[in-house]
Specification:
The protein has 17 helices and 6 strands. It has 453 residues and is α/β, with parallel strands linked by helices. It has 2 domains: 316 residues, no CATH class; 105 residues, 3-Layer(aba) Sandwich (D-Maltodextrin-Binding Protein, domain 2), CATH 3.40.190. The strands form 2 sheets. A 4-stranded mixed β-sheet has the order 2-1-3-4. Strands 5-6 form a two-stranded antiparallel sheet. α7 packs antiparallel against α15, α10 crosses α11 and α12 packs antiparallel against α15. The chain is elongated, with a radius of gyration of 30 Å.
């Protein structure tokens, strides 16, 4: 390999890509999207005010209506003395959005509930109604025991305990930790590595295919060795990726900082009420299966101090260095493989069959990383962090929970060795495939080129 020639190729690839309109557009659009993802959900939840529902109630049980208190979500009107069938056809006339019919108490001291409306009532309304009716039935059952002071006894018996987590270091020092924080960081890191490695490796393949289909590569290989051209292209795109990534971080932080200064005070003021607290908890619990009330209690019990302490106890230096190392090595590994695939085809549609076996390990690594968020010490996750085709994603998902130094060293060593082997094999395939035109290559062709001396 001629390092001077590789440097020239790197410079050409870098300058060509950073001057493209697509690079400039992505550089400025993506930070806006990232900032929007961070800020907009809170703004939407806190500023979206749903129209208060007007609800007619036929309470045939006689126990539920006292528990239906008017609020921001709904106003409740007692129509228990009227016929439900007649009310169904008079909702618009009465100016009501929903009719709720509660059956008489059955032998098990329970009721059934049905709602009727011209438009779907929505999940939130159904859950709220279910909770209020359940409270009414529970209250009726408790009172049926005729035990003096039973309400107070049950109130005193109920408890909600928050588990405060501590991690013991090798020196026995205790540090506060919050698994939820680790899970979020793990998820974000795993997704970033997966997206960036896939995106920029695919960029290398696209560049190779573009030069081959336009026959520019014939001119290039007449003065540059194919192996120098391949590595120059890979490293050049890597530098473009790091430049764009750094710009994304700076611009995203700048946009979020400006947005926080502009809207932060107003946002904090709106979050003072309990409704805003519950909305924030609902956002945090969305998709996790947690109960909203438990989420609110967790936020109140753990508090901002625990979250900040947990963030402060994370080894950010190790995390950032590991991210850069695994991003670079993961990119180099997959970029060399994608470059080999790109050299074997003349258009992107022909590459689908050849690149599928390469992308499958990347996808598997992403799914193992999702497992690592909940069980970072399982055998599957451990092996996923050692196997080089999945380790860039899985190991990044494990690091926030703490990984022994020897495991990091072993994982990186295996990844470097695998990259060297794959780069050597890809260079042989690239050298043969880059000058073959008019033929749809198969895996058998790639194997034949690999065995050529």
């Amino acid at each position: 390999m001629n390092f001077k020639t590789i440097g020239l190729v790197i410079g050409r690839e870098y300058n060509t890509r950073v001057r493209k309109k697509s690079f400039l557009i992505l550089t400025f659009v993506v930070p806006i999207l990232f900032a929007a993802m961070m800020v907009l959900p809170s703004l939407i939840m806190l500023n979206t005010k749903e129209k208060t529902k007007e609800v007619a109630v036929v309470d045939q049980s006689g126990i539920v209506m006292p528990f239906l208190e008017n609020g921001q979500a709904a106003n409740w009107y007692d129509y228990s003395t009227e016929d439900p069938e007649e009310l169904k056809g008079r909702l618009d006339e009465l100016g009501k959005d929903i009719l709720v019919v509660i059956s008489p108490l059955d032998s098990a001291s329970s009721v059934s509930v049905a709602t009727y409306s011209t438009k779907p009532a929505g999940v939130d309304f159904a859950e709220s109604l279910s909770g209020r009716v359940s409270d009414a039935v529970e209250d009726y059952r408790i009172k049926s025991y005729n035990i003096k002071g039973l309400d107070e006894i049950l109130s005193n018996v109920k408890a909600r305990i928050h588990v405060q987590e501590f991690t013991l270091g090798e020196d026995g020092k205790e540090t506060i930790s919050e698994s939820g924080i680790f899970m979020i960081i793990s998820m974000v890191l795993g997704m970033l590595i997966y997206i960036f490695v896939a995106m920029f490796s695919g960029m290398v393949m696209g560049s190779v295919i573009e030069e081959k289909s336009s026959r520019v590569v014939e001119v290039l290989v007449s003065s540059v060795k194919s192996i120098d051209l391949m590595f120059g292209k890979i490293i050049g795109v890597a530098l473009v990726a790091l430049t764009q990534f750094a710009l994304w971080i700076v611009l995203t932080l700048a946009i979020v900082g400006i947005g926080g200064a502009a809207f932060g005070p107003k946002l904090l003021q709106k979050m003072q009420g309990s409704d805003a607290m519950e909305q924030t908890a609902q956002m945090a619990a969305m998709g996790t299966g947690f109960n909203i009330q438990d989420a609110v209690a967790t936020m109140e019990d753990s508090g901002l101090k625990t979250i900040l302490t947990t963030l402060g106890n994370i080894h950010w230096g190790q995390l950032i260095i590991a991210f850069l190392v695994y991003f670079v090595l993961g990119y180099l590994l997959y970029a060399s493989l994608f470059a080999a695939v790109g050299s074997a085809v003349e258009n992107e549609s022909d590459s689908q069959q050849l690149q599928l076996p390469i992308t499958i390990p990347l996808i598997i690594g992403f799914f193992i990383a999702l497992m690592a968020m909940r069980n970072p010490y399982s055998q599957v996750v451990w092996w996923g962090s050692m196997i080089p085709f999945t380790s860039p994603i899985v190991m990044l998902a494990r690091i926030p929970y703490g990984v022994p130094g020897w495991e990091l060293i072993l994982s990186v060593a295996i990844l470097i060795a695998t990259f060297a082997l794959c780069a050597w094999a890809s260079a042989k395939i690239y050298r043969a495939g880059i000058l073959i035109f008019g033929k749809k290559s198969t895996w058998a062709d790639l194997w034949k080129w690999l065995k050529q001396k």
